[in-house]
Amino acid sequence: MSQTVPITVAYGDGIGPEIMEACLFILKEAGARIEIETIEIGEKVYLRGNPAGIEPSAWESLRRTRVFYKAPITTPQGGGFKSLNVTARKTLGLYANVRPCVAYDPFVRTKHPGMDLVIIRENEEDLYAGIEHRQTDEVYQCLKLITRPGSEKIIRYAFEYARQNGRKKVTAFTKDNIMKMTDGLFHRVFDEIGAEYPEIEKEHWIVDIGAAKMADTPEAFDVIVLPNLYGDILSDVAAQIAGSVGLAGSANIGTHAAMFEAIHGSAPRRAGQNLANPSGLLLGGVMMMVHIGQPDVAERVHNAWLATIENGYHTYDIYKEGISREKVGTREFAQKVVEHLGKKPQQLKAVSYSAASGVTRAVEANLDRPPAHKELIGVDVFLHWRERDPNKLGEALKTLGDERLALSMISNRGQKVYPDGLPETFCVDHWRCRFLSPDRTPITHQQVIALLGRVAAAGYDFIKTENLYTFDGVEGFTRGQGE
Ligand code: NAD
Q1: Can you spell out the DSSP letters for 385-396?
Q2: Where in the chain is the domain with CATH 3.30.70.1570?
Q3: Left (φ > 0), alpha (ψ -120 to 50) or beta: where does 214 sit?
Q4: Does residue 228 contact residue 236 with C-beta atoms inside 8 Å?
Q5: CB within 8 Å of 195: residues ≥ 6 apart
Q6: Average of per-residue pLDDT values in the chain
Q7: What CATH topology corresponds to 374-475?
Q8: CA–CA distance from 238 to each of 178, 230, 367 (Å)?
Q9: Ligand 1: which residue has its CA nearest to atom 25?
C-alpha cells in the first residue's frame, strides 16, 4: 500500500465547488490516500485585481505537490484577464493533454455506439505561443511555432500511452500539404518515432478530412495525436459526440507536474443548484489516482462509476426517459457511486488499472542532436507599402540589391506578385521582398544590415525581416506560391 500523497486542490467557480466536493467524497470513500492542500484560483482572484487569476502562494503549493486537481473556473469577461488554464499548462510545462472520449451506449444516448478514443493534444506550442503583432494598417500576424523537441515529446508520449494501455493504433492529424515546414515537421517526427513501435498501427490524415471522418466514424480511431490548435478543437468535438461534455475528464501531463480536470467549464447558470454532473471531474480524478500510484483506487472508482451509469442513476444532462432509472442531483449521484464501490458494470466494459497503465508519465525529447550546418543565404524583408503596384515596388527594390543579395521575388500574402505577377491578384499593404545570394553561397549579417540600411534610406518602412538559411544544404524556408 502506497503512502499518503499530497495534492493541490482548487474548488473553482460556478458548479466547481459542488462537483469538487462530490469527487473528493467519492475518492476518499474509495480509500484514496491523499492529503489535500486547497488553493484559491479563478474569478475571485481575478476580481481582486490579479490578472493571472492565481496568487504566488498557490504556485508554491503546486511546486511542492506537483499534482493539481482543478475544478473549472470562470474567466471574467473583458480584456486583461489571462486564461489560467493556459498559464498553468505553460508555467508547469504540462505539454500533454490527454482526453479519453468514450460512448456509454445504450445507457447514455450517443450517435456513435462503440466510440472509445483518446485524444492526445500538444499543449504548449503552435499558435498558442501568443506571439501576435499588428504590422501594417491592414495586416495582423500570429506566429505558429512547432518545435522538434515539442513534437518528439508529444508523439512519443502518444505511442507510450498506446503501448501501456493496450491501444492498437495511433493516428496523427496535420495540415502538412499546406504548412509543409511546421506541420511537416510534426508529421515527419510522427513517422520517425512511430517506427520504434512496430506493434502499433500508424496512420496520418490531413486534419480536415480526418476531422470529418472522426465526427462521422469515431469508432475507426483509437489514439489521435495532434498539434495544439487542431487538438483544442477536435477534443471538444470528440467529447461532445461521445455523449456529453459533462462526462469527459482530462489530464495535463508534464515532466515536473500534472493537472487533472473536467473538460467542461464552470456552467454558471447551473451553479449552486445541486444539478451538475460531477462525472468529468471524477474521471479526471481517476487518471490522477493512476498517476500518483494508486491504481487500485482508480479502478474501484471507475468501475463503481460505470456501474452507477449502467444502473440508470443520471444527472439532468444525460437523463433520458425510458433509459434512465432516476434523475439525481450532484450529491445524490456521488452517494450512488459510493454505494456502487466494489461493484463492476455488467454490460459496459469494466476497467482494470495497474501501476503500468493509465496516464503515462511524461517522456523527454532528445536534446543531444548535433546541430545542423547552417548557412545564411538571403533575407525576406517585409515592407509596409501603401501603393498597390507590385511592378513599381519590384523595379525600385531591384536597384537596392547588390551582387551578393539580389531581389528574387516579391509576394503578397504568400502569392508571388513580382516578377511576372498577374494583375488579378489582390494585394494588401504588406509585401514580402526576398533577397537571395545569386549563387546560393553564404552571405553575412553585415550584408543584410547594409541592405536594410539602403531600404530604409530609400524611404521604405521595413516591418520585419526573416533570415533565409540552409540547414545541411536544405533550404529552411518555403517558396512563394507560384514562385
Ligand atoms: P461550460 O462548459 O461551462 O458549459 C457549456 C454547457 O454545458 C452549458 O449548457 C452547461 O450547463 C453544460 N455543462 C457543463 N458542464 C456541465 C456539468 N458538469 N453538468 C451538467 N451540465 C454541464 O461552457 P461555457 O458556458 O462556455 O463557459 C462557462 C465558463 O467556464 C466561462 O467563464 C469559461 O471561461 C469557463 N471555462 C472554464 C474551463 C476550465 O476551467 N477548464 C473550461 C471551459 C470554460
Answers
A1: -----HHHHHHH
A2: 374-475
A3: alpha
A4: no
A5: none
A6: 94
A7: Alpha-Beta Plaits (3.30.70)
A8: 24, 12, 33
A9: 267
What is the percent of the chain where pLDDT is above 90?
82
Of 57, 86, 60, 56, whose CA–CA distance to 73 is shortest? 86
- Return the SS3 of 67: strand
In the block, residue with C-alpha cell 494598417? 137
| CA–CA dist 225, 174 (Å, integer) | 9
Locate cell 500500500: which residue?
1
| CA proximity to 386, closest of 434, 427, 424 | 427
Provide the β-strand partners of residue 8: 37, 68
Judging by DSSP bridges, how do beta strands 406-412 and 374-384 pair with one another? unpaired
Q: Tell me: the pLDDT tens digits for 442-453?
A: 999 999 999 999
88/406: higher pLDDT: 406
DSSP state letters, 423-438: TTS---SEEEEEEE-T
Span from the CA of 238 to the centroid of ligand 1 (angstroms) = 16
Distance CA 478, CA 446 (A): 24
In this predicted model, what pLDDT tens digit does every residue of 240-297 receive, in sequence order?
Answer: 898 877 899 999 999 889 999 999 999 999 999 999 999 999 999 999 999 999 999 9
> Is residue 239 classed as helix, strand or coil in its secondary structure?
helix
The CB of 43 under 6 Å from ligand 1? The reply is no
Asked whether 75 lines ligand 1 (CB < 6 A), one says yes
- How high is the pLDDT of residue 481? 74
The cell for 74 is 470562470
Architecture of domain 5-339: 3-Layer(aba) Sandwich (3.40)
- In the chain, CATH 3.40.718.10 covers 5-339
Angle (CA) 390-419-444 rounded to 5° is 95
Q: In the predicted model, what is the mean pLDDT of residues 151-155?
A: 96
Q: What is the rounded distance in angstroms from the CA atom of residue 300 to the CA atom of residue 378? A: 62
Centre of ligand 1 from the C-alpha of residue 401, in Å: 56
In order of 142, 159, 202, 217, 221, the CA distances from 113 in angstroms are: 39, 25, 23, 10, 13
Cβ 185 vs Cβ 146: under 8 Å: yes
Query: In this structure, what C-alpha cell is assigned to residue 56?
Result: 504566488
The residue whose C-alpha atom lies closest to atom 43 belonging to ligand 1 is 265
